[in-house]
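FORM 7B: Structural annotation worksheet

SECTION A. Query
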Amino acid sequence: MHPYLIIADDFTGSNDSGIQLVRHHFPTHVQIQRAFAPLASNVSLVLDTESRNMGEKEAGQVLKESLASLHSTDFSTILKKVDSTLRGNIASEVEVSATHFAAELIIVATAYPDLGRTCKQGVVYVHGRRLGETEAFRDPRKPVAEDDLVRLFAKRKKTILMDVGQIRSGSFKLADAEVVVCDAEKQSDLGLVVAWAASLKKRILFVGSAGLAQALVETSRPSKPALALVASLSETTKAQVEYASDHGAACIVLKVDDLLGQKDLQGYLDKAKSAFEHNEDVMLVVSSVLDRAEFDRSLAEGRRQGLDDGQIADQIREKLGNLGKQLLDSHELSGLFLTGGDTAFGLLSLLNVHEVDIKREVVLGLPLMQVVGSTYDGLGIVTKAGAFGNKDAISYALRVLRQQD
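SECTION B. Predicted structure
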């Protein structure tokens, strides 16, 4: 049996969903227009029907022909991949797919929160803006006519909505629904949907974008979260932290006063633990990174304690490093992201790490390394100088660290 079948309606969509499988080490082939070659049992298939811009009837016929040689018993999980902005013949192609595979339930979750696509009360939003107000409704080849998923599917089958309140509380009630439209505002919402679906023991056709593909593989083959320590005072790093926070990483801001004083830091560790338990990456960020005024306050507070500027920096680095070491020692993590030379050297000294093996460049100027020897042998590390990288540098580095296993 093959792990996954993804049915897409265009080539780029095939690849952005298929890469989610590859990231989790599922060998994956893309075949175009029809399944024409047998695959080894451990290989997943992405089938590109190239039907997005066809008329509804033509697309349905092409899809039927493309699926003719495939059977539901050949695949553990089947996803009808759709465009996250709902372009294409979505409802009709879902119906054809569900009929072909004799699906007992259709679960629709089109959100891709990491790219700003969310779903609230069944309505699709792009970066907080209702889809119906975006250029998708003016697409020259295939304009979108409906941004309410419940209305879209209710024309054909009995459809119900699961909002984020129900999803997060576990209050899933199916009744006799044929289609369940699921809201999602964070990637973790999609994970909860997939976990619930797995408990049903039904033949399910999943319908969604690359975000749902990511949730499916994360549930079947979860990766370990990564930890970032961020103390670099640069506008570039600030923008990278904000971007990573907007794209799923938990941002825990460490107040400079707490790091310089004698305050108990356990609360920060507890927040990180909670995020790790939800399989979220964690960024420990010194407050001065996000607010320059905090840096000036740290200098004033340190001097009040009789410290010079170098001692102030050393104390902040030491406290941050100790928190990082405690988290690394108490949780199974995929790796570390460290920005700023002092931050990186300080933590490696605490870990008693004396050698690393440079593996490759993550993006320009950001190396991926693995620890050689010591208790932390094989641990992945990405480092970044403060002003290096585009706004997605931290977010991308954390993702790369997850992919090592």
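SECTION C. Observations
Residues 309-330 form the longest helix (22 residues). The first strand starts at residue 2 and ends at 8.

SECTION D. Sign-off
Analyst initials: ____
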